[in-house]
Design a protein that fits this description.
The complex is a heterodimer of chains A (317) and B (448). By secondary structure, chain A is an all-alpha fold. Chain A has helices at residues 20-42, 44-67, 78-88, 96-111, 124-135, 156-161, 173-178, 190-202, 209-225, 230-238, 242-249, 260-280, 287-304. Chain A has a single domain, classed as Ammonium transporter fold (Orthogonal Bundle), CATH 1.10.3430. Helix content of chain A is 58%, strand content 0%. Chain A is globular, with a radius of gyration of 21 Å. Chain B is built from 15 helices and 18 strands. In chain B, strands 2-15-14-18-16-17 form a six-stranded mixed beta sheet. In chain B, strands 1-12-11-10-13 form a five-stranded parallel beta sheet, sandwiched between helices. Chain B has a four-stranded antiparallel beta sheet with strand order 3-9-8-5, with no helix packed on it. Among the domains of chain B are: 5-23 and 114-280, NADH-ubiquinone oxidoreductase 51kDa subunit (Rossmann fold, 3-Layer(aba) Sandwich); 374-447. The chains are: A mainly alpha (317), B alpha/beta (448).
Chain lengths: 317, 448
């Protein structure tokens, strides 16, 4: 017993079971239902795109870390999450090389060049989406209808806006809710994204603040901007990438505020920008730009919403 | 039984890990052959030995005299002969002067140990003197001299005393067992404390994972309408002084202030019980309940241990250690102090001895902060541990100071929840030490 050495370290001596990997695994699990919906509606090509996006992201992470002589941390699954989100943000017709470029851009430039996990100042997958949209605008908007006899179509939001008339009626709200509409691979099924979002809340990975304030703001503004049309408010809530953005991208830890107040501001800010772009902007959809814009405001929001410290009260006798 | 359940904002939920000992009656530990009594078992000035090598001492006899007001005398926990007065290791870290006594195994009582009379007949000052002379300090772990708490600076009016029975540290059950087995002592001690300060409102706060203790104290305090037993939400750090005061009274101790600033004094339930003993039997603080637990010990127990007994002796009475030992902790797992030797004595503040297995003691590898904000959510002081830690790591101590690093109570909730396993509270401790060192320096410069 005398020769025995005991570990001496400063308290606390126990740690919670949480880990970065477990959090990322939860996000992957939460994204699976929406992935299944994507494959169900748009075919195996959607699955192939997702696999390519994930492999490119992981490979880019490992390559960048070995070039920069940093420890390789692909095991933490954060690159897998980014890869899935890149795939979720492209149309089901996207060529594989383009998806791969998107993933590599997201990881190599947006994430690793700024310091890796926790240091990206904007959401990597959304930055990739913006880059792809600017580089290959036709390929990024080549929508198809769900099902095996897929034909060229447009998104419900574009239809609602009336910018592209292809002689189709507005899809029903039920179709929007379950995802039976044209759009990006991962964004169409509001119902299954909601399921994933609720799972993340249950697991304590995200909280309600950003999603609730984001979706709520879009709903209220859509109601006001459409001339008090309740139907339009519901339509805008379920259409486009709002649920994907609100639950999975505006909640990205690195690029969204940490303070409770800041998270509400983030959600409202995203909601306002989304609604303004959708109703008055040049694009039919504004979720990704709204999140990117609020991402760059995050450090400022965090600074001005610091919580009031316990005991920050007037000294009383 | 109408019990309110109260709490504070923030905090975390470490596994309770109390099952091993919460149902076990407190056993009297064997009297050791040799005891080692440190002259410093409290916050404040160390004591000065008032016996010499070769002297015969008796059980309960004062052997170290308090030097200064913020100090507390120490007494012999056995009868026997002083064999050495020398620097020895102690559980707070480093070495302090200790009186080593070889027991004659007789436990002959010191003549001065007599009951102090009925509480109704004792004056407030008399009670304070009894508490001071009995060497009573905070039994929760910090060991701040109790009589100092009872003498707030002039101008501060204390109207409430809160007894801390939260025992929010995982593993520990010494306070729980005390409340179950001696609830009347706790209530008596609280009444004595209230009388000593002329206070008319007393709370006993207990986490609601101990409903039996809540019930025991509720029944024991039935005849005392001035005492309210309150349930506290089971959440760490519910027993932290400022959080406990807030939960019971909704008063916030101002930053940098003392509980007396909001009219409250907090004491541990264990402290109240030894005060009861000191008044009713005259016995000073010479023994305490210690929970010995964890995977590394064969038979976890709650033992009534004489102050000065070595950890080694105590652990032997619990069947000894298992084969895989990683860490020996004095106190609980959240705020306890890791020991590198078993040859340290149990002191007044030793609420538990926790022995973790090799696997449990393995230190996790920290990775990048992912900015999840969990540390911000759990901080009971509403600090932003992530920022404070970053400032500390970049030597930006002024910034750490302006972001209230000194308000950190070092509860460790942030390090506990961090998914990236970053040692947040460690770096905040570094910042606090640097800030204090700078303050002392500038104070010295001013005084010159």
């Amino acid at each position: 017993m005398e020769s025995r050495k005991y570990v001496v370290s400063s308290s606390p001596h126990i740690r919670s079971g949480e880990s970065t990997k477990r959090i990322m695994l939860d996000v992957v699990i939460a994204l699976l239902p929406a992935l299944i919906a994507g494959v169900w509606y748009f075919g195996l090509n959607a699955l192939l795109i997702t696999i390519v996006a994930v492999l490119s992201a992981v490979a880019a992470e490992a390559a960048m870390q070995s070039i920069m002589k940093r420890p390789i941390t692909v095991n933490d699954l954060s690159a897998v999450v980014t890869g899935i989100l890149v795939a979720f943000n492209v149309p089901p017709t996207a060529p594989l090389w383009m998806v791969s470029i998107g993933s590599i851009f997201a990881i190599a430039i947006v994430k690793q060049c700024f310091g890796g996990v926790g240091h990206n100042f904007i959401n990597p997958a959304l930055a990739a989406r913006a880059m792809l949209l600017a580089s290959w605008p036709q390929k990024m908007t080549a929508w198809i209808t769900p099902g095996i006899d897929a034909i060229t179509t447009t998104t419900p939001l574009a239809l609602a806006k009336g910018t592209e008339v292809v002689g189709q009626p507005l899809p029903s709200i039920m179709d929007l809710f379950v995802g039976n509409v044209g759009g990006c691979i991962g964004e169409t099924s509001a119902a299954l994204l909601l399921l994933g979002g609720l799972y993340l809340m249950l697991r304590g990975v995200i909280n309600y603040r950003v999603p609730a304030s984001f979706i709520g703001t879009v709903g209220i503004l859509a109601f006001l901007f459409s001339g008090l049309d309740m139907n339009m408010a519901v339509y805008h809530i379920f259409a486009g990438g709002l649920f994907l953005g609100a639950f999975f991208m505006a909640t990205d830890y690195s690029s969204s505020p940490m303070t409770a107040k800041g998270q509400i501001i983030m959600g409202i800010g995203c909601g306002v920008i989304t609604a303004v772009i959708r109703f008055y902007g040049g694009y039919p959809e504004g979720v990704s730009y709204s999140i990117l814009l609020m991402n760059v405001a995050t450090p400022l929001i965090d600074r001005y919403t610091m919580p009031k410290k316990f005991g920050e009260v007037k000294k009383s006798a | 039984m109408n019990i309110r359940t109260l709490t504070f904002k923030g905090g975390t939920h470490p596994p309770h890990s109390k099952k091993a000992t919460e149902k076990l009656l407190v056993e009297k530990a064997n009297s050791p052959r040799v005891i080692v009594i440190p002259m410093q078992q409290h916050i404040g000035a160390p004591c000065e030995p008032i016996v010499k090598v070769g002297d015969e001492v008796k059980l309960g006899q004062k052997i170290g005299e308090a030097k200064g007001f913020v100090s507390s005398p120490v007494h012999s926990s056995v009868s026997g002969k002083v064999v050495a007065i020398e620097a020895r290791l102690y559980s707070g870290g480093g070495k302090v002067t200790c009186i080593v006594i070889e027991s004659d195994m007789e436990d002959t009582l010191y003549e001065g140990i007599v009951p102090k009379g009925r509480l109704e007949q004792l004056s407030a000052d008399h009670i304070k003197t009894i508490i001071k002379e009995a060497g009573i300090v905070g039994m929760g772990g910090a060991a701040f001299p109790t009589h100092v708490k009872l003498s707030p600076p002039p101008g501060k009016k204390v109207d409430t005393i809160v007894l801390n029975g939260a025992e929010c540290e995982p593993y520990l059950t010494s306070d729980h067992r005390l409340m179950l087995e001696h609830p009347e002592k706790v209530v008596f001690g609280l009444q004595a404390l209230m009388k000593s300060m002329g206070v008319s409102k007393g709370y006993i706060g207990i986490e609601n994972n101990k409903p039996d203790a809540i019930e025991a104290l509720f029944n024991a305090a039935k005849a005392a309408p001035e005492i309210e037993v309150v349930g506290l939400r089971t959440k760490y750090p519910q027993g932290a002084e400022k959080q406990l005061i807030y939960a019971c009274t909704k008063r916030q101790v101002p930053s940098g202030g003392l509980p007396a600033d909001v009219g409250v004094v907090v004491n541990n339930v264990g402290t109240a019980a030894v005060i009861a003993d000191a008044i009713r039997t005259g016995m000073p603080l010479v023994e305490r309940i210690v929970t010995i637990t964890g995977k590394g010990v064969k038979t976890p127990k709650n033992l009534l241990v004489k102050i000065g007994t070595s950890f080694r002796d105590v652990i032997e009475q619990c069947g000894g250690l298992t084969d895989s030992i990683g860490k020996i902790i004095s106190g609980g797992p959240m705020m306890g102090i890791a020991q590198f030797s078993l040859d340290v004595p149990v002191v007044k503040g030793t609420s538990g001895i926790l022995i973790l297995s090799e696997a449990e003691a393995r230190l996790p590898e920290p990775s990048n902060c992912i900015r999840c904000g969990k540390c911000v959510d759990v901080c009971p002081i509403n600090l932003m541990p992530i920022n404070l830690s970053a400032y500390a790591l970049q030597d930006k101590f002024e910034q750490a100071e302006s972001h209230h690093a000194l308000d950190c109570i070092e509860c460790g909730s942030c390090s506990f929840v961090c998914p990236a396993k970053r040692p947040l509270v460690d770096s905040i401790r570094v910042a606090k030490r640097e800030i204090m060192a700078k303050r002392r320096k500038s104070q010295l410069a001013q005084n010159k």
